[in-house]
Specification:
The chain is mainly beta. It is 2% helix and 44% strand. The longest helix has 8 residues, at 249-256.
Length: 394
């Protein structure tokens, strides 16, 4: 049913509660809110490149077993590492991806229809170090796109856009603590604040990505991924086991506004059923997806779900759940995503000699089933990134 009224104001007419956007609130007086009123209709995946093409695939939300591949860029062959859904300059839906090539760092669809077979538009950096400025992550929120990844001594920067088509380089060289390590984790609260991690440092913007500063209170280690849900920032760091670090949005805002440092909550990815180990790269590369106050971390072959609420973070009773490497799907888990309304998907690189697989959970990661086995389009394709057509965060 959702939230009907807040202080006798119809829920549909409420923009914020205590200065928190309604889309970022999971519950009011223990009544759950829908994912910002959004309902997914489609899922899109980005894949490894091959020969002279960049590939994506798509499936209807109503039938997540039905994946169709398409070629969106020709004459290049980088892998697509991340995919995001946002809006163009007119408020229409827009898909964009980032790749492992400096010649095409960012590519976006020309419309909201990924099924029409149209060629996507590529964007390249004009940096003097563009051969090193590959992007590894991209996100949209509050009518702003941010993409970033590799850094160099002479080019510490990220890319910012208000329409997904025209991008400007934001110089980060003057930000205290910036170095040249690759950035993997990036997230937004959907209301103008952004966070990214670089090694064991966390950086934030409260002005839609125009300027950045270190988050001095961050207590964790090397950052693997960043997310936002239930009015809570979520950071996953490297470890055996990995660790989830959380901070409430209001405490974060106080610190970034010049007030006292925020207090964080921490929880290792450990349970009686086992641990989930994490790393930025390699066979323990881990990502998280966040929705409805739940965070699911996906490791090499396992997932672990946690509840988050400000500094309160705890592993759910399902604990470590074996999913990849033949337990439910073949191969290593590369990506995880949610629609914000109870559907979670993981994508893999597939069993040896096969294309990637997709697994699904509809109970917050307690159980998984395979919905796609051995995806093949122009050869076997890995699932590198997944996303539903909903605007994050949820």
């Amino acid at each position: 049913m959702g939230i009907a009224k807040v202080n006798n104001v119809a829920g549909a007419a409420v923009g914020k509660v205590n200065n928190v956007p309604v889309g970022n609130i999971a519950k009011v007086n223990d009544v759950e809110a829908a994912a910002a009123g959004q309902t997914a209709t489609r899922w899109v995946a980005a894949h490894d490149g091959n020969g002279s093409h960049i590939f994506i695939s798509y499936a209807p939300h109503s039938d997540r077993t039905d994946w169709t591949g398409t070629t969106v860029i020709q004459n290049t062959h980088p892998d697509s590492y991340w995919i995001a859904y946002g809006k163009d300059g007119s408020g229409n839906g827009l898909w964009a991806t980032v790749t492992g090539s400096s010649s095409i760092e960012i590519a976006h669809d020309g419309n909201n229809d990924v099924t029409d077979g149209s060629t996507w538009t590529s964007v390249s950096s004009d940096s003097s170090n563009e051969d090193l400025m590959k992007c590894r992550t991209i996100a949209w929120g509050n009518d702003v796109w941010i993409a970033m990844g590799h850094m160099t001594n002479s080019a510490k920067e990220l890319y910012r856009s208000t329409d997904g088509a025209s991008w400007a380089e934001i110089d980060l060289s003057g930000v205290t603590g910036m170095n040249i390590q690759t950035v993997y984790g990036l997230a937004t609260d959907g209301a103008g604040s952004w966070v990214f991690g670089q090694q064991s440092n966390l950086f934030a913007s409260t002005d839609n990505g125009s300027s950045w500063a270190p988050v001095d209170s961050y207590p964790g280690g090397v950052v693997v991924d960043v997310g936002f849900t239930n009015n809570t920032w979520v950071v996953l760091d490297v470890g055996d086991p990995g660790q989830i670090n959380t901070v409430g949005a209001s405490a974060f805002a106080t610190e970034m506004g010049g007030g006292s440092n925020a207090t964080w909550g921490t929880q290792e990815l450990t349970h009686s059923s086992g641990d989930v180990n994490t790393a930025q790269t390699g066979n323990k590369r881990t990502t998280i997806a966040c929705g409805g106050g739940v965070v699911i971390a996906s490791g090499l072959a396992a997932t672990m779900a946690l509840d988050v609420n400000g500094t309160t973070v705890s592993v759910r009773s399902s604990g470590k759940v074996m999913v990849g490497s033949g337990n439910v799907i073949g191969g290593n888990i590369n990506t995880i995503a949610t629609d914000g309304n109870g559907v979670w998907l993981v994508g893999s690189d597939g069993a040896s000699g096969d294309g990637g697989d997709v697994g699904q959970s509809t109970d917050n990661g307690a159980n998984w089933t395979q919905v796609k086995d051995d995806f093949n389009y122009e050869g076997d394709r890995k699932f590198e990134a997944l996303r539903a057509n909903v605007y994050l965060p949820v």
